[in-house]
Specification:
Elements lengths: L20 E5 L3 H12 L3 E6 L12 H4 L3 E5 L5 H12 L3 E4 L5 H4 L4 H7 L4 E6 L14 H8 L1 H4 L16 H24 L4 E5 H6 L5 H10 L20 H4 L2 E3 L5 E4 L4 H10 L20 H15 L4 H10 L5 E3 L3 H4 L3 H6 L2 E6 L3 E6 L4 E2 L17 H9 L23 E5 L7 H8 L3 E6 L18 H4 L2 E6 L4 H13 L2 E4 L5 H5 L3 H7 L4 E4 L16 H8 L1 H6 L11 H14 L6 H23 L4 E3 L2 H8 L5 E2 L15 E3 L2 E5 L4 E5 L6 H7 L15 H6 L1 H12 L4 H9 L4 E4 L5 H7 L1 H4 L4 E6 L3 E6 L4 E2 L16 H7 L4 H9 L3 E2 L10
Parallel strand pairs: 1-2, 1-4, 2-3, 4-5, 5-6, 13-14, 13-16, 14-15, 16-17, 17-18
Antiparallel strand pairs: 6-26, 7-8, 8-9, 10-11, 11-19, 12-18, 15-27, 20-21, 21-22, 22-23, 24-25
Helix pairs in contact: 1-8, 8-26, 18-26, 23-27, 26-27
């Protein structure tokens, strides 16, 4: 048992959370992912398990989700169990709970009661919909949250049938874990300085909202200028692409029957792709020279068919040889989530590790999310047996040996959690740069270095800057040419003053520019340096371009979401190939995507590094990747061992995972039912009494029997749900505390922007953009009770170039000379192409 009698010494960089004690309460994947992260980095995490058994232990991934913990079994419905839990909370630095709002308070484990006894406690709550709003008391199952957010209708068309579909990747749960971790790490950073804890609140809704890079702003443009802009579906009623994105993100079949996902988003990448397809001649043909952009549906359909036919003239092996000779042309094979553990870049990065389990033997598992350079140690510890540490913990409580690691400093509380922290950002697009924007919402100063022509995400939509506003929120924009020595000198001066630096360049770029970790940390030893590329800082794919769809294919997300019915024969006709291509492409990036996962992982990593430096005085060097972080969103398949049972997957119609966790068509609309736990069966039977005799049917008498007769149970329930409108079912089952939600109209951005879900929960803010004007946006993705963040607007390209250079000591004449030489750009002056 860790003793707390002596002052805490510096935490080693390899275990930045060593010396912290965490109490974990509640159910669900999001809380478990928070716990495994904190345990992986050295915290002592105590998980309270219920006497009737922890539902997570029924999953094949339980040895991963519960690794590194101490386990105690307590009945929180009984006074003795609650009293022991309260004693543990008084001895902890962090408490993580994932009950519905109000449940912890009813158990005597609410924030107010526990903070009175332990003022340094960081109390983190994760719920489905947040503490307020119209759906706060709905059970926060992933499927229920996605139903109310429009996420299930967002992916209508993913299944080969009409209606909404079930996306099997737990995007919302993974993302809520990250937003909760970010709030927790920020609150711990404040506590290191002030000695005071506070409440942190986040939700699956807020986590899910992180996955939309620009659809929100596209809708705002259409709302503001209805006669000039209108939103359109990605494919026409005939299944023809509505824009060039389907060609830039081509999903095709090889000659020998392998599906590939290309991501040739930038113009120079697409032209090189056309060259290797043997289609460069099209740029000299008057009919096709605008490729990949065409006005008419007929032209788009014709161009699409030409691309598909050209791509499948080559085998997978021939494409691999092309990728070797043309580094800017790249596609990923559609892997399964289990196959993703064998991806050569996952292995090279150390994203996969071995954990010796006393019950299972040698297991292969996802490594900790953030790689810390130079870290040493035994690695992750195996999961405990239920209640394994109950006696040890009870004795330590009785003997008074447990106390929180209260920091010695007592500085005043800052206005925002990251006041005084400066982040320097070197990256493009969304997958990494949205991570620093999350820190900006917590009060960090984020200086983004942009090429003179601007981050390409600024011009991805027809309305200026709309594609990049979300990623740029709260930042300062400095436009400069990093290829010029004078531009690199500006970056070097900024790095000398920064606390954190994030780069997402492909392998070799930072070294070529002299902005690599070794170079900058010689200049600034206190610089926390995060490399956050798509694949890695070196290795087999380190120099490959990475976009959300390629990582969605590589990680297994697309295969899992598309379901088991995707055809793969090399002899498919175009009529068969095109709808399968659409479904796979959709599955690779909706409703969540690798861009959102990567950005959330970046924010978490930066905050971990900042806290590590604050606690130890040592600034770590860190690595995350889009691929490795997205694999954590698929953590149900993030572990392999002998005799492992398969993970539950969606049915061929993509309705759900079981009869009690799936979509049902109602008389009007659709509902999602979530009643998978044995304790939920009796309330469901009561709710449907008079419509079906579920309780009296021997086929459904036990959880095991319901599993064996799942198809029959689904048929009975399908008939029942067809008898009433979806809205009626939601109300009727809610009265019996059964989770059932009417499927809302998608996409997710519409619900977050317009629905009371976000408005009434207090998730929205209003800001003023220099050219876009006043608009609503999401506030910080976690709410801190004592040091709330602040929502700010996005900058124009180069809006802060002059002010930042003057702050660095450049004179007005020098700034003018740098601009005249094409080294810098300013918002009030035209910029040149370059960067």
């Amino acid at each position: 048992m860790t003793q707390r009698d002596e002052p805490r010494g510096p935490a080693p960089a390899s275990a930045p959370l060593e010396g912290l004690r965490v109490l974990e309460l509640g159910r669900g994947l999001a809380g478990a992912l928070v716990g495994v992260f904190l345990a992986d980095y050295g915290a002592e995490v105590i998980r309270i398990e219920p006497p009737q058994g922890d539902p997570l232990r029924r999953h094949p991934a339980a040895p991963l989700w519960l690794r590194g913990r101490k386990s105690i079994v307590l009945d929180l419905q009984e006074g003795a169990g609650r009293e022991q839990a309260q004693g543990l909370a008084a001895a902890c630095d962090v408490l993580v709970e994932s009950f519905r709002p109000g449940v912890a308070e009813r158990l005597g484990l609410g924030h107010a009661a526990l903070a009175a006894a332990n003022p340094g406690l960081v109390y983190t709550s994760i719920s489905g919909f947040g503490p307020g709003g119209p759906h706060a008391q709905l059970k926060g199952y992933e499927g229920i949250v996605l139903a109310k957010l429009g996420g299930l209708s967002h992916v209508a068309g993913l299944a080969a049938r009409p209606g909404p579909a079930f996306p099997a990747v737990p995007w919302a749960s993974f993302s809520a874990a990250q937003t909760a971790l970010q709030g927790t790490l920020a609150a711990l950073y404040v506590r290191e300085k002030s000695g005071r804890g506070q409440r942190v609140e986040s939700s699956l809704v807020q986590g899910m909202a992180a996955h939309d890079p620009w659809d929100w702003f596209l809708r705002l443009v259409a709302e503001r200028y209805p006669k000039a802009f209108a939103t359109a579906p990605p494919y026409s009623g005939r299944g023809v692409p509505s824009s060039s994105f389907a060609f830039r993100l081509l999903v095709c079949l090889t000659k020998d029957g392998h599906w590939l996902q290309f991501s040739q988003v930038s113009p120079h990448l697409f032209r090189e792709f056309m060259g290797v397809l043997g289609l460069a001649w099209m740029y000299e043909d008057s009919r096709w020279r605008s490729a990949p952009d065409f006005e008419s549906e007929e032209e788009r359909e014709g161009f699409w068919e030409i691309l598909l036919e050209a791509a499948r003239r080559k085998t997978a092996a021939e494409w691999e040889e092309i990728f070797r000779r043309h580094p800017n042309v790249w596609a990923e094979r559609f892997r399964t989530p289990r196959e993703a553990l064998d991806h050569p870049q996952m292995v090279h990065n150390g994203h996969v590790t071995r954990v010796e389990d006393p019950r299972l033997g040698s297991t292969r598992q996802l490594a900790p999310l953030v790689r810390i350079s130079g870290a040493s140690g035994a690695g992750p510890r195996p999961a405990p047996e239920p209640g394994e540490h109950g006696g040890e913990l009870a004795e330590a409580l009785r003997a008074g040996r447990l106390r929180p690691a209260a920091p010695a400093r007592r500085e005043p509380l800052p206005d925002t959690p990251l006041a005084g922290v400066t982040v320097l950002e070197l990256g493009l697009w969304y997958a990494a740069p949205y991570g620093p924007a999350i820190l900006a919402d917590y009060g960090a100063r984020v200086i983004k270095l942009e090429p003179l022509a601007g981050d390409p995400i600024r011009s991805v939509l027809p309305f200026p800057d709309a594609g990049g506003i979300k990623m740029l929120q709260g930042k300062e924009s400095v436009a400069l040419d990093l290829e010029a020595p004078a531009g690199r000198e500006i970056a070097l001066r900024l790095a000398r003053r920064a606390d954190l630096l994030m780069t997402s360049y492909r392998a070799g770029v930072a070294e070529r520019l002299g902005l690599d970790a070794a170079s900058l940390r010689r200049e600034n030893p206190r610089l926390v340096y995060l490399c956050a590329p798509g694949y890695g800082s070196d290795g087999p794919c380190g120099r490959k371009p990475a976009f959300a769809p390629t990582i969605g294919a590589a990680s297994g997300a697309a295969r899992l979401q598309a379901g088991p019915e995707i055809p793969q024969s090399p002899g498919l006709s175009l009529g068969e190939l095109k709808p399968a291509s659409i479904r796979l492409g959709f599955a690779a990036q909706a409703p969540g995507n690798a861009d959102g996962c990567g950005a959330l992982g970046v924010a978490t990593a930066l905050l971990l590094g900042l806290l590590a430096r604050e606690r130890s005085g040592v600034a770590p060097e860190l690595l995350t990747s889009m691929l490795g972080t997205t694999a954590w969103a698929l953590s149900e398949d993030g572990i392999d061992y002998a005799g492992r049972a398969p993970s539950p997957g969606p049915d061929p119609d993509l309705l759900g995972l079981s009869a009690l966790y799936r979509l049902y068509e109602a008389r009007e609309g659709w509902v999602f039912l979530a009643a998978p736990e044995p304790r939920e069966w009796e309330p469901l039977c009561r709710a449907l009494a008079g419509l079906a005799d579920l309780a009296g049917d021997a086929r459904f008498a036990s959880a095991e029997a319901r599993g064996r007769h799942g198809a029959e149970l689904a048929a009975v329930l399908a008939e029942v749900f067809r008898s009433r409108p979806a809205a009626d079912w939601e109300r009727a089952l809610a009265a019996c505390d059964v989770a059932c939600a009417e499927v809302a109209r998608g996409p997710v951005a519409r619900a977050v922007m317009d629905d009371p879900i976000a408005r009434e929960a207090g998730f929205l803010s209003e800001v003023e953009h220099p050219s876009f004007g006043r608009h609503r946006r999401l506030g910080p993705l976690a709410r801190l009770s004592l040091t709330p963040g602040r929502a700010r607007s996005a900058p124009l390209l180069g809006q802060h170039t002059e002010s930042v250079l003057l702050e660095l000591g450049y004179g007005a004449a020098e700034v003018a000379a740098l601009e005249a030489a094409g080294v810098i750009g300013r918002a009030d002056a035209p910029t040149r192409e370059g960067g």
